[in-house]
Amino acid sequence: MTNSTPKPQPVSQPESDRYWDGLKNEEIWLQRSKATGKFQFYPRNFSISDPETGEEGIEWVRASGKAEIFTFAIVHAAPHMGFVGEVPYITALVQLEEDVIVPTNIVGVDPEPENLQIGMALKPVFEHNPDGHTLLKFEPA
Amino acid sequence: MPNIQRLQNLSGQAHIVGVGESNKLGKVPDKSPLAHHSEAAINALDDAGLELSDVDALFTAGWSTLDVGEYLGIQPRYTDSTSVGGSSFVIHVAHALAAIAAGYCEVALITHGQSGRSDRAPIPRNPGAPMSQYEAPYGIIGPPVSYAMAARRYMHQYGEDRTRQAMAEIAVSTRKWANLNPMAYFYDKPTTFDDYHNSKWVAWPFHLLDCCLVTDAGGAIVITTPERAKDAKNGSVKILGAGEGHDHSGISQMPDLTRAFGRNTGPQALEMAGVNHSDLDLAMVYDSFTYTVLVSLENLGFCGPGEGPDFVASQRTAPGGDFPLNTNGGGLSYTHPGMYGIFTVIEAARQLRGQAGERQLDKCDLAVAHGTGGLLSSTGTVVLGTD
After folding, report:
1. Closest chain B CA to residue A107
2. Domain B4-119+212-386 is of which CATH architecture?
3. Where does A64-141 sit in CATH, by number?
4. What is the pTM of this model?
């Protein structure tokens, strides 16, 4: 099916520029609280595990890319005109080694339930789009 | 933290005196969303024996009360556009109780109108919001995808086969109730377990019959003081307990995909009302998806985490069963314009007033109405009782 409606694109905000810019270089950069050592996703202008220190309390750390499936779904009815040509596709919440949950797609595997297990090990795939943004997807490791 | 003692003093300090739907539900392409608001409002006021000119407080979600008030031609002295998804209207009931008891207003009107099926002007998304930024580019858009991922996690924790069976039980039992409600979209259409299992995938693990309808519809509720409720044309219902809140917006930020905020709002509403689960005659639980019901029953405390599949087994929630659930046919089989919550309260009020027609329960003195909004994000719970 031909499809002319574009997919929604990420509209980067000041606190997330570093995340989206990192993906363009095939690097995953996450925020970590200097005080608690806890990572957070998505980026904010303060650490939710240590709110008082504000922006000063945050450091950016490059993530390993190691991840596993936390949960997933296989989308058959496109929820947006931009995905009409994509179904069926796999959406997932994946848990990074740094203990944050990231929304994404699983690629490189047929979208059938038996091909996917919660806990399955994953590695990142960087999908560079012609308009300039890069999406972080995952495939079985 | 809520002050339960003060909340208990608030219990019963306002009554629902009118409920109504718009004139036609389902596929209604010749009516705008605001027309659904106004039809339902006038029907609910007529049910109460009141008029638009009596209204001094306005509550709505999805739209601003500015737009709805202007369309209705009223000038409310109390206004509340709290909009946290389909649970909002249940939350409005609690807000109306507090506003009336505090003296801000005497006649509160809650309206809902949405043309989910036929809308010519759907509400645009905010592209800068985190959900738009981090989830939408991956096609994680709208309720089915998000709720499906939550349900898959539940299956992992508590067993895939028994979860699947529970979802089928809920789909089938809810349809049986719809078959008793002439206003229901699927009034004339029975369904079977085979129909459920054979229905197409929307977002695995959800079949089509796990998912609510998408309709055009409106609903409205009128609430007033206990004194004025004595003049109600068709009887009144006491607002006994309430709770509200939220713990995330996008599904990827949900603290526990198998536990929604009803874990707080359910116990609070019951404690405020001074009742136990076993006292309740009816549960109206927002069924955006079969899974929503399963997890909500656990959150409300009818059973423990992971026990929902046993709780709903063997059509115990169907007509004739010992746990009447969603007796209007629910969002799954009656109507669901997009933010269904108001209809849980409308049906509870009808059952409590003995006006539910063929589906009327033999005994209905206490009911709980529970709304879930967004992507399992917000909940609002109210406990209602006969006057």
Report:
1. B138
2. 3-Layer(aba) Sandwich (3.40)
3. 2.40.50
4. 0.97
